[in-house]
## 1
Amino acid sequence: MKWQIVKQNAAGKDVWQYDGTLVARIGEAVLIDARFDRDDFVFNGMPICRGDRFIEAYYADRWFNIMEIYEGGTETLKGWYCNVTYPANIQEGIVTYKDLALDVMIFADQRCLLLDEDEFEALGLPAKIKEKARKIPNELLLLFQKNNYQSIKRWFDQA
């Protein structure tokens, strides 16, 4: 079944939309299979190419989403991109999430980067929201360690 993914900025303005296919729905979470539909570029050392496969986990009760990135139509894992977000709004056929700019990038070899701290600080979020969001990168890293950096298809329902 086709689903639409809508990324919004922290203020709720749509910034990107694309389609994916529902893989699974468990409780407050959905797993979506999508293809990257923009021009090729290199992001912090990871090439992202048109047609790369993204397996994406969205949660209505968690402050993040996870995108597992595979090279084209292969099973060659490039890594994971994790957005710190408000909990996703999951309706039938559509996922909308508000991005809080702070991101965690984990390469297939388990190297990781914390990204966009300056953009996060510039958002001017309320103190409680900032405090909650600042804890998410560590939660994500612990989640990946707990699951031995396996595919999120195997553990997304445990997050």
## 2
Amino acid sequence: MAPTSAQVAVLVGTALDPYRLSRILPEGVEVYTLWGEMAYQLGGFQGHQLVAEVDAGGAAPGANSLVELFRKVGPCVILIDELVAFIRNIKGARGKPRAGDFNSNLTFIQNLTEAVKRVPTALLVASIVVVWIKVKNKQRERTKSCYPVTVHGLFKLNRHNKIVHNTKIILNRILL
């Protein structure tokens, strides 16, 4: 039987500031990271508690913790928009942003795709803007395309529909 409802988390990279907290929960807990915000939106205070320590420290939660979260909240949909804008903002930051550093955010995306793959009632939809650099007579020309990320972490990387499984490699290529 198909679920009749689902918990939803919407993360918009251009709305989040890597140096400021995302929100203060009614219980007084501060939320800093994409994963802290996602956990709170899906499961409220109890959902956030599953990632509270890594949220406060800026370290990415492991896939097992995310699986636990998804199973606890039941059917869920995670929508991520402007992910590359958020990651680029962190990559250029000085010091360690409260939202976690570049590597911890890449690790989170990798762990998120792995966790979603393991929980049949979890769905991930994210937009990734790909910047193509064409070289013409030693001049660089930039063009943009937007590709959706599939549920299992597969990304359309190029116009030839080459599918790549490694999130870190893909985001590093996008951010170069």
## 3
Amino acid sequence: MRTERVKEMRNWDWLRLSNKLKPVRGKIYISETERRKCRRVAAVFSDMYEHENLLVLDAGRYGFVKLNDFRESFGFCEVYTFTESKELFEDLWKEWVNSQLIFLTSESQLAELDYDDMLEALPPSVMKRVNRKKHQLMVRAGLIPGKEMYPSAARHWGR
């Protein structure tokens, strides 16, 4: 029902609605605990930023921002905001997996498939390595308990 209402709105209705959605001055959108967790997640994936066309930044009280698809004439085409470390991790994990799939399938017939089909076409031994990598990264980010911690995460974010 709400989508039907939105479709019927005129331009001036959008303006009126957008005024109600402005952020409240001084409101904090991310807790300090989640900020620390997001910093660690961003640090775990920091190696990927140089090879991919994306960047993750701490946006203060608003959370963390992922800037994606940089164009010289325009800047970043996509901007995503995260206030939960698990969501940030899953998004960056998906970016990492997609970049690996492109690399692995670049000279094969699998390159014509979409990412989900590529993932399903991988042999079980490769999927086991992918799942192990995800587990390792989650431990390094501190999202699940484990022996391995990521010591350079604190240095990367100035802690």
